[in-house]
Amino acid sequence: MRYLEDFSEGQSFELGEETIREGEIIEFARRFDAQPFHVDPQAAKSSIYGGLIASGWHTASLFMGMLVRGLLHDVASMGAGGIDEMRWLKPVRPDDTLRGRLTVLGQRPSTKHPDRGLINCVGELFNQNGDRVLLIRWSAMIARRPGGVTVTPAGAPAKERT
Amino acid sequence: MRYLEDFSEGQSFELGEETIREGEIIEFARRFDAQPFHVDPQAAKSSIYGGLIASGWHTASLFMGMLVRGLLHDVASMGAGGIDEMRWLKPVRPDDTLRGRLTVLGQRPSTKHPDRGLINCVGELFNQNGDRVLLIRWSAMIARRPGGVTVTPAGAPAKERT
Predict the structure, then answer these.
(1) How far is the C-alpha of B69 from the C-alpha of A38, rounded, in Å?
(2) A57, A116, A124: which to substitute to probe chain B, counting the most B Cβ within 10 Å?
(3) Which residue of A has its CA nearest to B61?
(4) Which of A73, A50, A52, A70 is nearest to A62 (CA)?
(5) Residue A94, SS3 per DSSP
(6) Could you say which DSSP state residue A4 is in?
(7) B87 phi and psi angles, rounded to 5 deg
(8) Cα dist. A98→A16, A94, B143 in Å?
(9) Residues in chain A whose beta carbon is closer than 8 A to a beta carbon of chain B?
């Protein structure tokens, strides 16, 4: 299990890949984002997108799925308070294969809760052409290692607590 | 059908309400965010949340569903480029009834595309106790009215084009 102390600036994690199908795009959008360019292939053709595209909420949810399966399943994750920025940079279309990546920008212990901290990170999805289709910036809340290494105010590692 | 010109600063739209059930929370999270506090009621009890909570991506998607059914179904919506900020302010739990609201902060024509513009807006969800559980800020892309009212640089409405 990875804890807050196992993350540091500059780390990058490949999260695997997933191919998205027309049926799933339409199914998700019928429930959550039933705009014509997400649910109706014919209407989508005459939209500015020229064809059916995935809801941005679907794309973001696919990224989250990859993040959990590719990394968080083995992290003492405690959730998150929100998203600082999300960009849907290119349309996601049926049969696109999306590849996920997480990059750690920084890490800090919580000032309020001694048992946890935040990692500031960027999530990205790329399609099969290498185009970046999604960017998400946020801070993930992660538990500190119980009885683990403590860090002095100056930032130097202190001895193990036992 | 509403176009860009039909939106202005300070407008507020009530988007209806929806009750979220444990089964849906678990189903969504199994597919997209299978962290223990989203998929396992027993494990969730011993988490910092004290019980099962909805994935933030599920909550955001529920908001989007309300926005489409409550407003966008009758708007010349062209999608969005992303989200400027999203906050999951309180946990969303099984049987919570969520009420949605959209507030328009401003409106501007696109400088690149004469056929469209952006409305800057804030979306909110409130639970049955009146607690705000979700806040989303973003700019929605909306078509301008075809052959509609033009606005002079000074902001005064010009005569109808025909």
Answers:
(1) 14
(2) A57
(3) A32
(4) A70
(5) coil
(6) G
(7) -125, 125
(8) 8, 11, 30
(9) 28, 31-35, 37, 47-49, 53, 55-57, 60-62, 64-65, 68-69, 72-73, 77-89, 135
| Cβ-nearest to A87 among B35, B69, B82 | B82
Residue B56 CA to residue B54 CA, distance in Å, equals 6
Joined together, the tokens standing for residue A24 give: 């799933």
Record the tokens describing residue B152, joined without a space: 């002079």
Confirm if A20 and A38 have CB atoms less than 8 A apart: no
Instruction: Name the residue among A60, A81, A84 with its Cβ closest to that of B57.
Output: A60
Count contacts between A and B (CB, < 8 Å).
98
The pLDDT of residue A147:
82
| Nearest chain B alpha carbon to A63 | B32
**Does B128 score more than 50 pLDDT?**
yes
User: Tens digits of per-residue pLDDT, B103-121?
Assistant: 999 999 999 999 999 999 9
Query: Which ipTM was obtained for this model?
Result: 0.90
- What would the two tokens of residue A96 be? 């696109």
**Model confidence pLDDT, tens digit, residues B54-104:** 999 999 999 999 999 999 999 999 999 999 999 999 999 999 999 999 999
Helix (H) or strand (E) holding B79: strand B77-80
The answer to whether A109 and A5 have CB atoms below 8 angstroms apart is no
